[in-house]
Structures are given as C-alpha cells and as structure tokens.
Design goal:
The structure holds two protein chains of two kinds. By secondary structure, chain A is an all-beta fold. In chain A, about 0% of the residues lie in helices and about 60% in strands. In chain A, the strands form two sheets. In chain A, strands 2, 4, 5, 9, 10 and 11 form a six-stranded mixed sheet that branches. Chain A starts with a strand and ends with a strand. Chain B is mostly beta strands. Chain B has one domain: Immunoglobulins (Immunoglobulin-like, Sandwich). In chain B, strands 2, 4, 5, 6, 9, 10 and 11 form a seven-stranded mixed sheet that branches. Chain B has a four-stranded antiparallel sheet with strand order 1-3-8-7, with no helix packed on it. The termini of chain B are far apart. Classes of the chains: A mainly beta, B mainly beta. At the A-B interface, strand 4, strand 9 and strand 10 of A face strand 4, strand 5, strand 9 and strand 10 of B.
C-alpha cells in the first residue's frame, strides 16, 4: 500500500518553461514533506521542504505547494533548465515523540529539453 | 514481510562509545545506502555499497565505517561517538530498472548520544 504516490513516472518540459511535479499522499499523519533530486547511482539531494502547517514554500526557482484537504503537493520549477533533468522524489515524514517514519514516492523522471 | 529492516530502532549511548547499527534487505537489491537525517530533517547520504564495493563515500568522519558482509546487509559502525552524532540514520536499498532507480528505506534508527 503506497502512502506516497507520484503517478507520473516521467515528464518532459522545454527549457525555460515551468515544470510541475505532483505527489499525492494518503496518510493524514504526515506532517512534513520534502522534495529530493536524484541522479543515477547517487543519493538524493535535498531540494525543498514544507511543513503541514503551510501551503507554500519558495526557494529560488523551486516552489512547493501543499493542499492538505486534497492530500496533494506539487513542486514547481521555473524556469526549467537542462541541468534540472533528474529523478525527483517526494517524501513525507511522520514525526512524533520517539519515532520517525520517512516514506518516499517512487519518483518522477524530469527531462528538460534544450 | 519487512523489505528493509534496521536494528536497533532506538539507541541511547554515552560519548566515546562504539556502536553498530544493522541493516538488512530481503529484496535482492544490489545497492544499499546509509543516510543521516539532521535536525532540519534533511537526508544526507553517507555511504553506498554496490555488490559489496563502496561506490560513494561522502566526506563523513572516519569514525563512521560501513561494513557489508554480504549483498543483503550493510551495517554502520561508529567509533568514539560524539554528541553531534545524535540523529536518525536511515538505511536504504536500491532497485535500478532502466534509468529509473527506486530506493526503499528502512524505518530509521534514532541515535541519541549523551
């Protein structure tokens, strides 16, 4: 049972345009969400995060939006650059006294076409 | 059936001690990773092993050493523990299919150094 879902395995975007990566979750206990970028054979690189008490967080070209009622978050990259081509993982955390649970989606491969 | 398991789940110890965290995966994957999650909940890769060979070794202190007795296990040994080592440590195993890599994470080990 996948609690964090990235339903699009791949996405192609023209350079300079906006990339929108989506993520859905089912567990209402998640209270922190993160996006990671990953190249093949390397570990994920942290990009941006958002707490469940917010609906938007922006960092440079990256913006994450959270819609708690829909249990949906998205990562916007604008403008997209060829160096953004990688696999992007959405992750969710349940934090609490004495325990952590970190759940990753399966990733979306973004290809930015020059 | 747990795909990626870590033991112990919680570890409380004194400064200067040596401790090990074990990780086992029953997925038949070739690559395994160790991550450290810092106080801001960022995941930072520490080590990865592919078929018992170290392929990524980030600039972590040499007090940390990965040990892989076989493909299904990647244990993390820490010498002379320091206060700053307190964190949650995640083990992961990886499946590569074409250009898509999916990482499966263990539940984490919460280490507290006193």
């Amino acid at each position: 049972d996948q609690q964090v879902k990235q339903n699009s395995p791949s996405l192609s975007v023209q350079e300079g345009r906006i990339s929108i990566l989506n993520c859905d979750y089912t567990n209402s206990m998640f209270d922190y969400f993160l996006w990671y970028k990953k190249y093949p054979a390397e570990g994920p690189t942290f990009l941006i995060s958002i707490s469940s008490i917010k609906d938007k967080n922006e960092d440079g070209r990256f913006t994450v939006f959270l819609n708690k009622s829909a249990k949906h978050l998205s990562l916007h990259i604008v403008p997209s650059q060829p160096g953004d081509s990688a696999v992007y993982f959405c992750a969710a955390i349940i934090s609490g006294a004495g325990s952590y649970q970190l759940t990753f989606g399966k990733g979306t491969k973004l290809s930015v076409i020059p | 059936d747990t795909a990626v398991s870590q033991t112990p789940k919680y570890l409380v110890t004194q400064m200067g001690n040596d401790k090990s965290i074990k990780c086992e995966q029953n997925l038949g994957h070739d690559t395994m990773y160790w991550y450290k999650q810092d106080s801001k909940k960022f995941l930072k890769i520490m080590f990865s092993y592919n078929n018992k060979e170290l392929i990524i070794n980030e600039t972590v202190p040499n007090r940390f050493s990965p040990k892989s007795p076989d493909k299904a296990h990647l244990n993390l040994h820490i010498n002379s523990l320091e206060l700053g080592d307190s964190a949650v440590y995640f083990c992961a195993s990886s499946l590569v299919q074409g250009n898509q890599e999916t990482q499966y994470f263990g539940p984490g080990t919460r280490l507290l150094v006193l």
